[in-house]
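User: Need the bound-state model for S-adenosylmethionine:
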Amino acid sequence: MADDDAFVHLLRLKDTMTPWALRAVVTLGVPDLVAEGEKDVSELAQRSGAVPDALRRVLRLLARRGVFTEPRPAVFGPTGLSRLLQSDHPRSMRPWLDLEGPVARGDRTCVHILEALRTGGPVHERTYGRPVWEDLAARPALGAAFDAAMAQRASWIAGDVAAGFDWSAVRHVMDVGGGTGGVLAEVLRARPGLKGTLLDRAPTVAAGREAWGASEAGQRCTFSGGSFFDTLPSGADACLLVNVLHDWADEHALAVLRRCAEAVGPRGRVLIAEHLVEEGAGGPGAAGLAELDLVMMLVYGGRERRLDELADLAGKAGLRIGDVSMTPRGLSLVVCEAETSAAG
Ligand SMILES: C[S@@+](CC[C@H](N)C(=O)[O-])C[C@H]1O[C@@H](n2cnc3c(N)ncnc32)[C@H](O)[C@@H]1O
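Assistant: Bound-state model below.
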């Protein structure tokens, strides 16, 4: 690549403002306002509590990045991107970008990436005085907003998880760290005879029960608040772990796998849904996954893993990896069985 091209490419890569400009306008509710129709920046500023000149400069950047249209000077309108940022969109990305919410709060730890490089991370405690899970527990509103963000993501993947695993031999599935249960509810709806247990932190499980406990699927579910580092409730013949292990360093991920293996016993299964890292350049989602891996390092002290790394952990928990498949959105579905049942 010629130096001129490399210079332009690097300017784009070093992008300082777009990620934060996006978060700022989402926090101010600008996508909701432009959804009503094209609006002059003076009205947008007045209704969102911003200074018109500052808002115009932020929106000019985002219009040039394709988030809004600017059909006339200082007039901004919606696009397919801004629609997904509206609060009333059923799969709104707002919970992931709201600067007053827990996810963008975690993103702010990125300013300490140098320290994470020198220590191996995480840097959440350095930034906010507490590790992330303690922080969410200590601030219930933040914890609830975190659950809402996870539920939003679950709405994208629940159908794929329900369709992607073979549930025919499962009688009772426990969704471990299942959040408010969006994925479990979908699995139970798809398999009418199946029983479920939703296991997560007590306030999260309570929110799940409130949301879908009264539904037909909810009637087949036990809502169980507790820690997945403690002995899990008995009765399930399969544990489901959706985007849980990547939150944790190996030592803790192994502890969760051991609790699951103990809970399902020698004839049970542990079903893992996570994105798996491939060595080399990888497919279209590879850069996004590499980025997510850094968020895991900085915020949670976790990591995205390769299949062999997951297999290594599973082996230490007495589990052997069987079928591995991938959903259309690139989530890997990994079936683990007890080593003893796989051998005999
Ligand atoms: C990344 S979220 C995934 C949620 C859900 N599986 C999904 O895919 O939407 C991780 C979940 O682990 C839960 N969690 C964290 N620490 C936990 C603990 N010690 N015991 C039980 N659940 C925990 C969080 O409350 C959160 O719901």
